Amino acid sequence: MNLNWWKIILGFVVIVAIFFPSYSKIQKLKSKDADLSQELERKNKENKELSEEIEMLKTDPVYIEEVARDTLKVARENEIVFRVVNDEEE
């Protein structure tokens, strides 16, 4: 009877030794899959936002003017631009 228990325990240890590395690898791959899925979702959202911005730059004159004023510091003809400087920036 005692010998049978050792066989069972030995069999269990062998099974664990064989399958544990595979189980561990599967868990790591599932974790990586979840991370990549989140990154893909973020990239799809960013792609959608950029596509919308491109469309606005092609079709919306008000948005084009806003971008030109904010990023390119463009002013209309005969327009005077005042630059406000904080003392903290100097």
Tell me what the structure shows.
It is a single chain. The protein is an all-alpha fold and 90 residues long. The chain has one domain (2-71). 77% of the residues lie in helices and 0% in strands. It has 2 helices and no strands. The chain has helices spanning 2-59, 61-71. The protein is rod-shaped, with a radius of gyration of 32 Å. The chain starts with a helix and ends in a 19-residue tail after the last helix. The mean pLDDT is 87.
Average pLDDT: 87
Order of helices and strands: HH
Determine Rg (CA atoms, Å): 32 Å
Instruction: Please describe the biggest sheet, giving its number of strands, its sense, and whether it closes into a barrel.
Output: none
| Binned strand content | under 5%
Tally the beta strands: 0
Uncertain runs are: none
Task: Assign a percent range to the helix content.
Answer: over 70%
- Supply the number of helical segments: 2
Q: For the terminal residues, how far apart are their CA atoms?
A: 88 Å
Global outline = rod-shaped
Count of separate structural domains = 1
Structure classification: mainly alpha
Provide key terms for this protein.
single chain; 90 residues; mainly alpha; rod-shaped; 77% helix; 2 helices
Write the layout of secondary structure elements.
Elements lengths: L1 H58 L1 H11 L19
